[in-house]
Structures are given as structure tokens and as C-alpha cells.
Amino acid sequence: MSGRVVPAPATGRGDPAVQRLVQAAFETIRSRYVLARHQIAAAILDADGTVHVGLHVDAMIGRAAVCAEACALSAARLSTDAALVAVAAVRYPKPTEPPEARLVPPCGLCRELLLDHAPDLTVAINGSKGIELMPLKGLLPHKYVGTKWAACAAPEATPTQTRL
Known about the structure:
3 helices; six-stranded mixed beta sheet; 24% helix; globular
């Protein structure tokens, strides 16, 4: 968008590693934004310090759309087996909105997906002191716990969880 200045949500705030993660997501969506096609980008940091990015891919049929976090997870898993440490997603504003990119938490489906593959993942959120990392588990306190994968042994069920 020629002439439109949209500042990064992490400018001047937070831990340097968190800033790097948010900046990667922001730069990805800033360079790839297309109205009604790509509005969110996500970045995932692995334990080796590599950042993997993904782009939201919209579709005419909403259910066919793929979230940026799922795309970043796929990119990470294509290039490494390292543990995944943190995720950040940035939404780029539509031309009719104020020019403010903003940090967004993963949707419920992505929370489940990310926790299936990275149970100790943290997520960048807007906190009281700027951008902060919090355990993704905190955004999804009652995660579905199944027995589909033996490699991901399910923790003991709490009274609010049901093990199938």
C-alpha cells in the first residue's frame, strides 16, 4: 500500500526475543498482505533460535481457510525437530481501518493444534507492561486430552477434563 505507514506492534516494547518474533510476523504480513486473502502472519521461535513464519491463507469457503499459526507450525516442522518455544501472530489492518497492526492470540483451533505439537509453547500477547509471553496453556485451560499419539502421553485428567 503505497504511502501507508503501519508501525510494528512491538516497536520499542518488551523483551528482545519477543520483539524479534513479533517483528518477523509483522514484516511477513506487511510484505505479503492482500485484502481478503492474507491478513495475518505468525512466527514461531524454536529452541535453536530460528524463527519460522507462516501466512494466513483465506478462502471463499471459510472452513477451507488456513490460519497463519498452522502454516508457521508446518514450516517449523519441515525444517527442524527442535522444540518450539514461542509464537506470535500479527494482524494487518484493512485499508478502511486505522493504520495499526496488532498482535492477536491464536484462535481456539490453533491453540489446540499448537499445544498438540508443542505443549510448553508460549504466546506473545498484549499485557499490562507491553508485549509479554505467557504459556499457551493459559489461554486454553481445558485442553482436549486424547490418546491418539502414544508419543504425546496425555497428562492425568483433571476433574474438568475427560480422557477418551
